Amino acid sequence: MREAQQTLSLHGSNTGKEKANIVQCPSHIRYYLRVVPMRLMAQTHLALALLVSPLLGGNPPGRFDVRGKVEISESGQISRFPRFATVAIYATSSPYTATTQTDLSGSFRFKNVPEGNYTLDAFGRRGQARFLFQVNAEAAEKSGTVKLKVPLRIRPGQLVQHLKKRFEVSVNQLSVPPKAYQDYQAAEKRVQKEDFDGAIEKLEHAVSIAPQFAAAWSRLGIISFYQNRLEKAESYFRQGLENSPNTIEFQFRLAQILLAQKRPQEALEWSHAAVKLRPEDAASRSQLGMNFWELRDYENAVLHLNEAKRLDPAHFSGPQLALARIYIARKDIPSAMREVKEFVANHPDSGEAEELQQWLEKAQASQRH
Question: Which candidate, 8, 11, 12, 19, places its Cα nearest to that of 244?
Answer without folding.
Answer: 19
